[in-house]
Specification:
CATH class: Mainly Beta
Radius of gyration: 25 Å
Number of strands: 37
CATH architecture: Beta Barrel
Largest sheet: 22 strands, antiparallel, barrel
C-alpha cells in the first residue's frame, strides 16, 4: 500500500506542478475539443435532458457527485452504506444504476460501466472529482444515440473543465473525522491548455468499522496544432480503500442505541479499488461546417471487496469478489451542420469499438478473509475465470430546425457484442448456474424519434419515442443456451413542456411511460428464455423561481407508478417493482442577506417502497433537511467563501436502503446529524 500511496502523491504533485507552470501564461484563447455529439444542443433537444452546471456544483461543496442527483427530478439514491462500494441510483423506475447496469455513466467519453464486475454494468463515480466538473448532462431513458448498453434508465455524461484560467480550492472538515480537500487548476501557455484536479478524502464514518480513504488525480493537456486542428491527452488515477460494517437486522435498526453499531455476525469486511485511464482525442475541421473527431482510450482497474450477509436464518457468511479489468477503445465521429430545404440541419454520425477483459475471482464461506473447508468443499461456487467482451457500435442523429413549431430529430444506434469465458485457475462447484462458455453474439438496433415545438417565448413542448436494450445476464450470455435468448427491448414514450410564466420563473414538466419486453428468466440448469414484461409510468416536475434579487426557490418532484405485467412467478404479476419510491421531492430555498451572507435550506422527501418482489416487505418514507450558511467576499486575490453546513438537521433516524437475505430483512442506517465547515477559494 505504501508504494501505491507514493505513486498517488507523485501523480498529484505532477499535476499541480504542471498546472502551476502556466500561472503567468499569455491569455490567448484556444477552442476546446468536444468529446462527441456536443453539436446537438440540449436546450433544443426533443428528448428530456437535465443539466447541472459548474456554478451549482461548486456551491454545493459535495464530496461525491451522487450528492447532486437530488437536484434532478426522476432520480433518487439508495445508499448501501458499504464503504467505497457504489450505491444504487434509481432513475425512472429502474433501480440498478451505479451498483448495477441500469444507467450509463461516462466522464469525457470514458465509460465507467463494467461489463463484468460486481454487477453487470457496475459504475463507480468516486473516480470523478466534483471540483473538476464543468457540467453533468442527464439523458432520461434510452434517448441518446451516443450511449448504448446500460442506458435503459438513462445516461449521466460528465464533462470536465477543458479551458480557462482558474485556481480553485475547496477544503472542509466535519463530523466523524471527515476531511475533504479538492483543487482544480486551469492554465494556458501559448497553444497549450492545461487542466488538472486532485482530491484527497478520508473519514472514520458514522458507524464502527466504516473508515474510507480515497485519492484521485486527473489531468488534461490540449494542443492547438493550427488551422483548427487540436490534440488532447488526458488521464486519471484513483486509489481507494475502505472498511464496511455491512447491514443490520430489524431488531438493531429499531434500537436507537445500537443502530450505528456493527452486527456481531459481521466479519472484517473491507475493499479496495485502483482505477487508471488514459485518452487521446484528435479534432480537425474538414470544412467550415464539418468536423472530424477521433479518440483512443485505455482503462486499467482492480476492485476487491468482502461482504458478510445471512445465508440461513441463523448463519452469516463472508464472501470475496475480486476483479482485474482492462479496456481498450477507439472511435471516430463526424459533427456537421448542413442546409436542407433552406433550414439548418445539425447532425452527428460515428462508430466506436471496445475490447474489455476481466479476471473474476469469487469465494464464499470465508472466515475473516481466510478460506475454510466449506469454501473449498464444492458446496458453494469457487470461481477464477477470464471474461472477454467485444463491442462495436454505429450511431447517427440529425436535428432539423424546420421552424419554431417543428424541430424534429431522428436517430439510430446499432450495437453488436461478442465474447468468451474461460477458467483462469482452479474452479470448484460452479454448477450449471455459473456457466463459462463462449458468448453468443448479440445485436440490437435502437431508433430514436422526437419533435420539439416553440409556441411562444414562454412555452415549448417536446415529444419523443425511443428504444433501448438490455443484454441477458452474464449467466445467460456465457451459457450453452445463450443463443436462444435475445436482448430485452426497452421502449419509452416521453412528453414534456417548458413554461416561463414570468421573469426568473421556469417550469418544466415531463411525463413518461417505459415498457420492457422479452425480459430474460432463468429456467435452471443453465437454461434461459425470454419471458417477462414491466411497465413504468411517471411525471417529473422541475421548478425554478427567482422570487427577488435576494431569494431563489427550486423544487425537483417525482411521481412514479410501476407494475409487473408478466413474470415467471404468477404471484408477482400486478405488483410494483421493488426498491422504487412512488414519490420523491427536493425543495430548496436560498436567501441572500447582504454583506456576503447567505443561507441555503434543502428539504428532501423519499417515499416508502417494497423491497421484495412480492411486495410483502417494505421500507418506510423519510423527510430530512440540510442547512448551509455561507459568507463570501471578493478580494484582489479572488473570491473567498467560508461555509458551515448541517446535514440531517433534525437528526432523523431512518434507513437509506433495505433488502431481504435468507428470509431476514436487513437495513442500511442513514447518517445522523453531521456538521461540516469549510472554505472555497478561487484565485
Amino acid at each position: 500500500m505504501e508504494l501505491k500511496k507514493k505513486r498517488m502523491m507523485l501523480l498529484i504533485g505532477a499535476a499541480l506542478a504542471g498546472a502551476g507552470a502556466g500561472v503567468h501564461a499569455e491569455e490567448a484563447a484556444m477552442s476546446v475539443i468536444v468529446v462527441k455529439g456536443q453539436g446537438l444542443a440540449t436546450d433544443t433537444s426533443p428528448f428530456t435532458v437535465n443539466v447541472i452546471e459548474q456554478e451549482t456544483i461548486r456551491e454545493r461543496h459535495v464530496s461525491q457527485l451522487q450528492e447532486l442527483y437530488r437536484e434532478v427530478p426522476g432520480i433518487s439514491i439508495r445508499g448501501l452504506g458499504l464503504g467505497g462500494v457504489a450505491d444504487s441510483i434509481n432513475m425512472r423506475g429502474f433501480t440498478g444504476g451505479g451498483h448495477g447496469g441500469d444507467i450509463g455513466m461516462a466522464i469525457d467519453g470514458v465509460s465507467l460501466n463494467e461489463s463484468m464486475s460486481h454487477a453487470d454494468g457496475y459504475a463507480d463515480q468516486n473516480v470523478i472529482i466534483p471540483l473538476e466538473v464543468e457540467r453533468m448532462t442527464v439523458y432520461k431513458g434510452p434517448s441518446s444515440v451516443l450511449y448504448g448498453n446500460y442506458s435503459r434508465a438513462g445516461t449521466i455524461a460528465v464533462e470536465s473543465r477543458k479551458g480557462g484560467e482558474y485556481r480553485d480550492i475547496d477544503v472542509k472538515i466535519g463530523s466523524h473525522a471527515t476531511r475533504d480537500v479538492q483543487a482544480a487548476i486551469g492554465t494556458r501557455m501559448g497553444n497549450v491548455q492545461g487542466n488538472f484536479a486532485v482530491q484527497l478524502f478520508d473519514t472514520n464514518g458514522f458507524r464502527e468499522q466504516s473508515d474510507t480513504r480515497r485519492g484521485t488525480a486527473s489531468g488534461r493537456l490540449g494542443f492547438d496544432l493550427g488551422g483548427g486542428t487540436q490534440l488532447a491527452l488526458s488521464g486519471r488515477a484513483h486509489e481507494g480503500k475502505w472498511d464496511s460494517a455491512s447491514y443490520i437486522t430489524g431488531a438493531q435498526n429499531a434500537d436507537d442505541d445500537k443502530r450505528y453499531d456493527k452486527d456481531p455476525n459481521v466479519q472484517n469486511d473491507d475493499g479496495r479499488k485502483d482505477f487508471y485511464t488514459g485518452r487521446l482525442d484528435f479534432s480537425t475541421p474538414l470544412t467550415d461546417e464539418l468536423q472530424l473527431l477521433a479518440f483512443a482510450s485505455a482503462t486499467h482497474q482492480s476492485l476487491s471487496r468482502s461482504y458478510t450477509r445471512p445465508t440461513t436464518a441463523v448463519k452469516w457468511e463472508q464472501r470475496l469478489e475480486a476483479y482485474e479489468r482492462q479496456v481498450r477503445g477507439a472511435g471516430a465521429s463526424l459533427n456537421g451542420a448542413s442546409q436542407v430545404g433552406g433550414r439548418k440541419l445539425d447532425w452527428v454520425a460515428g462508430v466506436e469499438g471496445y475490447r474489455e477483459t476481466s479476471n473474476y475471482i469469487f469465494k464464499d464461506a470465508l472466515l475473516n478473509g481466510a478460506e475454510t473447508a466449506v469454501t473449498t468443499s464444492g458446496a458453494k461456487p469457487y470461481m477464477n475465470r477470464d471474461y472477454l467482451t467485444r463491442s462495436v457500435a454505429a450511431f447517427a442523429q440529425a436535428e432539423w430546425a424546420y421552424s419554431e413549431l417543428f424541430r424534429p430529430a431522428l436517430g439510430v444506434r446499432y450495437d453488436r457484442f461478442t465474447g468468451n469465458c474461460s477458467p483462469a485457475g482452479v474452479e470448484i462447484g460452479t454448477g450449471a448456474g455459473n456457466p463459462c462458455l463462449r458468448m453468443a453474439g448479440y445485436s440490437h438496433t435502437s431508433p430514436k424519434l422526437g419533435v420539439r415545438s416553440r409556441w411562444s417565448p414562454q412555452f415549448e413542448t417536446r415529444v419523443s419515442l425511443t428504444e433501448g436494450f438490455q443484454l441477458p445476464s452474464a449467466s445467460a450470455r456465457y451459457s450453452a443456451s445463450g443463443s436462444a435468448v435475445d436482448p430485452t427491448r426497452i421502449r419509452q414514450a416521453d412528453a414534456g413542456l417548458t413554461f416561463r410564466p414570468a421573469k426568473g420563473a421556469v417550469v418544466d414538466l415531463a411525463v413518461f411511460r417505459i415498457k420492457t419486453y422479452n425480459e430474460v428468466r432463468d429456467l435452471g440448469g443453465g437454461n434461459f428464455e425470454n419471458f417477462g414484461q414491466t411497465r413504468r409510468s411517471g411525471a417529473e416536475l422541475d421548478l425554478q423561481y427567482a422570487v427577488s434579487s435576494q431569494m431563489d426557490l427550486s423544487a425537483a418532484l417525482t411521481w412514479i407508478d410501476t407494475e409487473v405485467l408478466q413474470h415467471a412467478n404468477a404471484a408477482v404479476v400486478g405488483t410494483s417493482v421493488p426498491n422504487v419510491p412512488d414519490r420523491t421531492a427536493t425543495v430548496r430555498a436560498r436567501y441572500d442577506f447582504g454583506a456576503g451572507w447567505s443561507a441555503d435550506l434543502a428539504v428532501q422527501h423519499g417515499g416508502g417502497y417494497p423491497v421484495t418482489a412480492d411486495n410483502t416487505a417494505r421500507l418506510g418514507a423519510f423527510t430530512t433537511a440540510d442547512l448551509t450558511v455561507a459568507w463570501e467576499r471578493n478580494t484582489s486575490m479572488g473570491r473567498q467563501r467560508f461555509y458551515a453546513a448541517v446535514t440531517n438537521l433534525t437528526d432523523r433516524m431512518y434507513s437509506t436502503s433495505s433488502l431481504v437475505s435468507a428470509g431476514l430483512q436487513l437495513y442500511a442506517p442513514a447518517p445522523p446529524r453531521g456538521i461540516q465547515v469549510g472554505m472555497s477559494i478561487s484565485l
